[in-house]
Amino acid sequence: MKELKMKAAVLKNPEELSIEEVSVPVPEINEIVINVKSCAICGTDVKVFHHGHKHIVFPRITGHEVSGVVSSVGKNVEEFKEGDRVAVAPAIPCGRCLYCRKGYQSMCDNLKAIGYHYDGGFAEYMRVPEDAVRNGCVNKVPDNVSFEEASLAEPLACVINGQLLSRVRLGDTVLIIGSGPIGCLHAELAINTGAAKVILADISSDRVKMAEFTGAMLVDMSKEDIKKVVIGLTGGHKADRVIVAAGAPQAQEVALELVAKRGSVNYFGGLPKEKPFINFNSNLLHYDEFFVTGTHGSSPLHNRIALDIIASGRIDVKKYISYRYPLDEIKTGLKKAEDKEGMKIVVLP
Q: What distance in Å separates the CA atoms of residue 227 and residue 159, rounded to the nearest whole number?
């Protein structure tokens, strides 16, 4: 039988990315292969392009915000069939470790990821490993959801995880620092959850303007004092939930001064590994008894919930898609993402 070929964006080393003809993957008995229809670009894809990643062995096909059509299935797979429209949660739990058994799949001791340990979605076809199929990482896409929309379920899933960890509740005042796509998703989800006030702030005037569609109260931190704004809007009580959706140490530090007593701060954006430390005034924590948490990913369940929210229309993720590129133009898409032009960029293999 003649070996089938496909186009893929192959990262051979940092900043060495080329479109190549490679073999179409063939599923093992408990795996599936999908024909990729949409793969959105994430900020981490830009970082990986420039610097690689500790879990990546080159050459690697990256891309992890993926949707497509099942093109072939292993002989033991019963849940999926050829032609199924699916979205794939990229973080793959083992299902066997202590944290998986506790229900904390995103904290799996043996966590693997599509686009890192396994080839990802910047290709015409992608193999979905056995653990991903077995542990609920493959979700069928509702009929009223497009492939482009489905590929944005992954970032929304991370936001869902973050807000569950932050304990966002009815009537809360929620402050989000960073109005990129993740910050905007946080704002929309908090509004849907029933937060009384949602404040979305950024130091970039362009980003603030792009976030007008969210319905949040917008603060341009290059022109306004965020502390005065938050204190004024809350009668001096500050924000019940502060979510830092930016990888900036200054934002993480100021968040501690903006959170209410018994509230919570979520460091959703990570810092560069060369400079991971901030000045942390622990007396603020001690006396105001607030909680500090972080978020770095999501579970298969969060991804399924994200698809349901998208299907319901409560969050219109089509508004987030600023640019679409064919696979041959992936470098242009990565540059757009790096330069923060628009919101989300999708690659259509």
A: 24
Residue 152 has φ and ψ, to the nearest 5°, of -95, 5
Question: Can you give the residue range of the structural domain that contains 192?
Answer: 159-294
Q: Is the dihedral of CA 51, 302, 208, 218 positive or negative?
A: negative
DSSP code, position 58: S
Torsion of CA 213, 219, 220, 222, to 10 degrees: -160
204 by DSSP, 3-state: which?
A: coil
- Return the CATH number at 214: 3.40.50.720
Choose among 177, 230, 243: nearest CA to 204: 177
φ, ψ dihedrals at 242, nearest 5°? -120, 120
Instruction: Answer whether residue 20 is part of any domain.
Output: yes
CA–CA dist 341, 50 (Å, integer): 18
Identify any residues that bridge with 295 across adjacent strands, giving them in sequence order: none
Given 3-state DSSP classes, what are the helix, strand and coil percentages for the chain, each rounded to the nearest 5? 35, 30, 40
Q: Kindly state the DSSP code that residue 254 receives in the 8-state scheme.
A: H
330, two tokens: 């992936």
**Is 310 within the bounds of a domain?**
no
Quote the tokens at residue 41: 């670009």
Nearest to 166 by CA among 97, 93, 239, 233: 239
Summarised one tens digit per residue, pLDDT across range 169-219 is: 999 999 999 999 999 999 999 999 999 999 999 999 999 999 999 999 999
If you ran DSSP here, which 8-state letter would residue 193 be given? H
pTM above 0.85, yes or no: yes
220 and 337: one domain? no
